[in-house]
Write a structure and sequence with these properties.
Subcellular location: Nucleus
Pfam families: DEAD_2, Helicase_C_2
Number of strands: 20
Main location: nucleus
Cofactor: [4Fe-4S] cluster
Structural class: alpha/beta
Shape: globular
Number of helices: 35
Helix content: 40-55%
Strand order of the largest sheet: 3-6-2-7-12-1-13
Strand content: 5-15%
InterPro entries: ATP-dep_Helicase_C (IPR006555), DinG/Rad3-like (IPR045028), DNA/RNA_helicase_DEAH_CS (IPR002464), Helic_SF1/SF2_ATP-bd_DinG/Rad3 (IPR014013), Helicase-like_DEXD_c2 (IPR006554), RAD3-like_helicase_DEAD (IPR010614), Rad3/Chl1-like (IPR013020)
Largest sheet: 7 strands, parallel
Length: 847
């Protein structure tokens, strides 16, 4: 806590890394230090310089910022323009040409009525005056429950925003709920106001929307309902007569009544509530907890939210988050750089492009005669781009290379679309509502012709056209990045084998630029996690301009005593075969059978739960099928119930519950059945390896099979490796000496191993770190508190190898210190058996 408090007090721009294994009190330390600093900072501001935006220590630092009289909230506020005269000029609706006052009869009359029915799909007139494009409306809340328009109608004024704030973010909703649980244990849970943000899927209480299932469909339907206004007539008395005036309200019944939103805010502000609690309160009151929670951000002292809500720029703007002078705490930051870049990736498939092109052409054919010049020009441009994207996916001239990579400029020049102003096109898509207009008309045509599309129902499900158009918009925005910040991956279909959907994908490489948008505004940023080392890679990718001495780093050992963990590097199986699970030998039937014999012995010694991690779903399936065929699974089942991690994340919770129930039931009746627990076959990088805690009997032993190196043939990975190698060479050699010459300047793909061999340090180090970070995350699932105990078996002879050459390091060098210091390398299976037997016998006596 002293370290964190000191880091926050060190002034604007502070950056600190806190490495603290699970069970060591990391969350409580973060809560107490950050929130106490917030309270002290505000108290000092009131006593010191109440007129300054950054009252005490921060303002006194003399950074030169804030010398003007304008306060932060005014300087950062972007007012909404009274009229959008510069970009979109409202004109008489184009349908006026359709409804000319001439009398129509017969077929002509029928055609006129059909056009009138399509009025809702017509775009408003759009004109762009040169390059003068209106800025996006930052902070505008579009929902009906609390937007600026509603407030003006009701005569309400926005509550003053509380600054500075503390923003806490983590990867999953369950981790955020754990944080709230710890917050409730402190006085800050009652003393400070909190806002907890979640996804629509987790907070929506509209049953009609929830039944859509997927997050994308729920988001689309929610936004669609807000655009759908329910018109009611109210009586207004004036001039001694009653007049009926129309009043519009949101189409979603959960956010129509402003009074219920106020009641929700009042109820929630009384205590610290997590996402599940918010949803429960919303159901009880009958109002939307998603937008209710968003409305509380302005007055909150502490904002708890998932990664994308704060790290994605568009999400920050949509939510109206102001990071100026605030504290940003990012938990589970071990893969932060990759998480940042993946948020800015975009992918569009050939089937989506075909659907978009069909919808664009149908819309243009229907409304071309009544569309204004601006709309017609932009829709034609979208059609040209979509057709060009499709063409590059269908043309495979050499017939061999199905995957290519190129820079943004190379992609634009190769399609001959470099003369198109994509900036203005993206602005048009954002402002004109074209996505919903064209998608709405497409859905209408599909509903009219439902008989003919029954075989393609999945492709044309409700909302799929909106999702496809949004995907295109995301891909177009990706083309606005700088040329060196990412790569375009072109994946064409293969001529033989299974048919696969071709796709275009933008892969973001530069995480430094994304992260700087957060650090430049925030007073301080804290990166926390159980395993953050090696920090050099984190520094290189997120803040390369900082020297290592400028980064505050604190690490603590685990609180569990040495006798509570048993990490063993297992080099040989029961028959003496050397374990080698490298890619070239891991599929050997003899290797798989030796692993099965090893596991059969382990389950006889280890009580309760055993979790075994494999490198991939494919390899897990290969091993499991071989064990079923050889009868190994039936032998294992005599000691442990066997469960497998499903690919579908929806089914993970069900499997985990069954796994837990099996362990609990066996602890009561193991003498009768001989079954002592359960075995769970899991996958590195899956749901189970990242966010699930296997405390106590859930994970008495974790088995890691092999070293889970990612495939070097993965195109995105090779591009990332080349980018990081270039960064590291720029740092060590100098920015003027580029390492790009080591690769093809045209970004032609090379075999992954060739690229790794050309790497000096940074790229190879990143590749090794990917593997060992995954190992550390997986084996760290077992020890969750001070009284817990577990064995960790690293099954591969490479774990016992020392560095064979200067260009690579020993894998165990990258293990957390609390594991590495207690690691034992067993030369034969007999040593493993003896150590396991002694370990569990000792811990059984101690408990």
């Amino acid at each position: 806590m002293d370290f964190l408090y000191g880091a926050l007090s060190s002034g604007p721009g502070a950056l600190a890394l806190l490495e603290s294994p699970t069970g060591t009190g990391k969350t409580l330390s973060i809560i107490c230090s950050a929130l106490q600093w917030l309270v002290d900072h505000r108290d000092a501001a009131l006593l010191g310089h109440p007129g300054r935006p950054n009252g005490s220590a921060t303002a006194a630092a003399g950074s030169g910022e804030g010398d003007d009289d304008e306060p932060d909230w005014m300087r950062d506020f972007t007012p909404l323009p009274p009229e959008k005269a510069s970009t979109k000029k409202a004109k008489p609706h184009p349908t006026a040409r359709i409804t000319a006052p001439k009398r129509a009869t017969g077929p002509e009359k029928s055609e006129m009525s059909g056009e009138a029915e399509d009025d809702e799909f017509l775009l408003e007139e759009y004109e762009s005056d040169g390059e003068d494009v209106t800025r996006p409306e930052l902070g505008k809340r579009p929902h009906c429950g609390g937007g600026s328009s509603s407030e003006s109608e009701d005569g309400e004024v926005d509550e003053e925003e509380v600054t500075p704030k503390v923003y806490f973010t983590s990867r999953t909703h369950s981790q955020l709920s754990q944080f709230v649980g710890e917050l409730k244990k402190t006085e800050f849970g009652r003393r400070l106001k909190m806002a907890c943000l979640g996804s629509r899927k987790n907070l929506c209480i509209n049953k009609d929307v929830l039944k859509l299932g997927s997050a994308n469909r729920i988001n689309e339907r929610c936004l669609e309902l807000q655009k759908t206004k329910k018109i009611t007539k109210i009586k207004v008395e004036g001039d001694n007569r009653k007049v009926c005036q129309p009043k519009s309200s949101c189409g979603c019944p959960m956010i129509r009544k402003r009074s219920l939103q106020k009641e929700f805010k009042s109820k929630v502000s009384e205590q610290a509530l997590d996402i599940e609690d918010l949803a429960q309160v919303g159901r009880k009151i009958g109002t939307c907890p998603y937008y209710g929670a968003r409305d509380m951000v302005r007055t909150a002292d502490l904002v708890i939210l998932p990664y994308q809500s704060i790290l994605l720029k568009s999400a920050r703007e949509s939510l109206g988050l102001n990071l100026k002078n605030s504290i940003v705490i990012i938990d589970e930051a071990h893969n932060l750089a990759d998480s940042l870049t993946s948020m800015y990736n975009s992918k569009i498939t050939s089937s989506q492009l075909k659907s978009i092109l069909s919808n664009l052409e149908a819309y243009l054919n229907r409304f071309q005669s009544v569309l204004g010049a601006g709309n017609r020009r932009y829709i034609q441009t979208l059609t040209v781009l979509t057709r060009s994207f499709l063409q590059v996916l269908t043309s495979n001239q050499d017939g061999a290379c199905t995957m290519t990579s190129m820079t943004i400029n190379q992609f634009l020049f190769s399609l001959d679309i470099d003369n198109i102003n994509i900036v203005k096109l993206c602005q048009y898509v954002k402002e004109s509502n074209i996505i919903h207009k064209i998608s709405g008309y497409a859905n209408k045509l599909i509903n009219q012709d439902g008989v003919n599309i029954s075989s393609h129902q999945q492709q044309y499900d409700e909302g799929s056209s909106v999702a496809s158009f949004q995907t295109l918009a995301d891909f177009l925005r990706s083309l606005l990045n700088c040329n060196d910040e990412g790569r375009i991956i072109v994946s064409r279909p293969k001529f033989s084998g299974q048919p696969e959907d071709a796709y275009l994908k933008f892969v973001m490489l530069c995480s430094e630029k994304i992260f700087s948008e957060v650090t430049n505004d925030a007073h301080a940023v804290i990166l926390a996690g159980g395993t953050l080392q090696p920090i050099e890679e984190t520094r290189l990718r997120l803040f390369p301009s900082l020297s290592p001495s400028d980064i505050k780093f604190f690490t603590c050992n685990h609180i569990v005593p040495p006798e509570s963990i048993l990490p063993i590097a297992v080099t040989r199986g029961p028959s003496g075969m050397t374990f080698d699970f490298s890619y070239s030998s891991r599929s050997s039937l003899t290797m798989i059978e030796e692993l099965g014999r090893f596991l059969c012995n382990v389950v006889t010694i280890v009580p309760e739960g055993v979790v075994m991690f494999f490198a991939s779903y494919e390899y897990e399936r290969c091993v499991y099928d071989a064990w079923v065929a050889s009868g190994m699974i039936s032998k294992i089942s005599k000691k442990k119930h066997v469960f497998r991690e499903p690919k579908n994340s929806v089914d993970v919770e069900m499997i985990l519950n069954k796994y837990k129930e099996a362990i609990q039931s066996c602890s009561k009746c193991s003498r009768d059945t001989g079954i002592t627990g359960a075995l769970l076959l899991a996958v590195v990088g899956g749901k189970i390896s990242e966010g699930i805690n296997f405390s106590d009997g859930m994970g008495r032993c974790v088995v890691m099979v092999g070293l889970p190196y990612p495939s070097p043939s993965d195109v995105e990975l090779t591009e990332t490796i080349k980018h990081i190698e270039h960064l590291s060479n720029s740092v060590f050699v100098g920015a003027g000496n580029s390492s790009n010459n080591r690769y093809d300047d045209e970004c032609k793909l090379q075999p992954g191993f060739d690229i790794l061999r050309k790497c000096n340090k940074g790229g190879r180090e990143y590749y090794e770190n990917l593997c060992m970070k995954a190992v550390n995350q997986s084996i760290g699932r077992a020890i969750r508190h001070v009284n817990d105990y577990a064995a960790m078996l690293l099954v591969d002879s490479r774990y016992a190898n020392t560095s064979l050459n200067m260009s690579s390091s020993c894998p165990t060098d990258k293990l957390p210190h609390w594991i590495k210091s207690r690691l034992t390398c067993a030369q034969n299976y007999g040593d493993v058996h003896r150590l396991l037997h002694q370990f569990f016998k000792l811990n059984k006596q101690l408990r």
